[in-house]
What we know:
This protein is α/β, with parallel strands linked by helices and about 300 residues long. It contains eight helices and eleven strands.
Amino acid sequence: MVRKINENTITDAVIDQMSGTPDPRFNEVMTALVRHLHAFAREVDLTADEWLGAIRFLTAVGQQCTPHRQEFVLLSDTLGLSSLVNALHDRRASDAATKSSLLGPFYRQDAPMKKLGETIISESEGPQVVFYGRVTNAAGEGVPNALVQVWEPDETGNYDLQKHDPSVMDLRGCFHADSEGRYYFRGICPTGYMIPMDGPVGDMIRAQRRHGYRPAHIHFIISAPGYRELVTALYVAGDDHIDSDTVFGVSDSLVISVNPKDPNSPLPGRPAIHYDFKLAAAAKSAAMSGRVGVDPSQILQKAH
Ligand code: BEZ
Ligand code: FE
């Protein structure tokens, strides 16, 4: 007998048809996705015009993507999905560690390796500041030689890729912490900016009357063998948008202040930002990346 397909039976019909999926996790994710997608369409009584509008919007999001721009990541960020995936990731850690924050669409994986104390500035002219602190384990012991990757926007709120051709790397660097987990380097005082608003995600943000800004911040990825990779950012206290980040990346524990005269700074005489990062032990199973996103140039490469 031919199965009757109507608004009540369609969900089970799709789930039944997918039930032979050999990969159990793929089956679980797709089954839940179909259930929630159908429930959403029923809840809002989705019209054909709205369905087509969504198809047009997603098509435009895809067309906006290049090796140097990831509009889908931006969409995930502005809908709070990236931040939710970060929070779920943090919940799976075995011990308390520094909170994750958004990787965002401007991470580049080939930033230059630098020595402790060096500057990440090559082009920009913003006011300089020293960033310093320790990378420790959950017990507060230093993690020797931890890899600290950093990137920040310039004094106009633009990342290098937004202003220069891709051969220029500005305000990015990688450092190895010393034998006691200490790191320090020079950069510019973090700035805030509006997320890229010239694509379909910007159209959505304007239609929702949202301001589109991120508070001033600097990004970090910190890693060491035996530890979960930490993807996070530090946010400057007092920024106008600290409580209304368009991509929901700020947590209280990641808010810092610039100290105009810090006697403990390893490079005294300059304003300094001090922050100690705590890494959680790596899971016993396969290393789980904490990156919600990648260098955009890698997304177009085939996954294996
Ligand atoms: C960023 O902080 O680089 C960023 C994160 C999400 C959207 C846009 C920018
Ligand atoms: Fe950023």
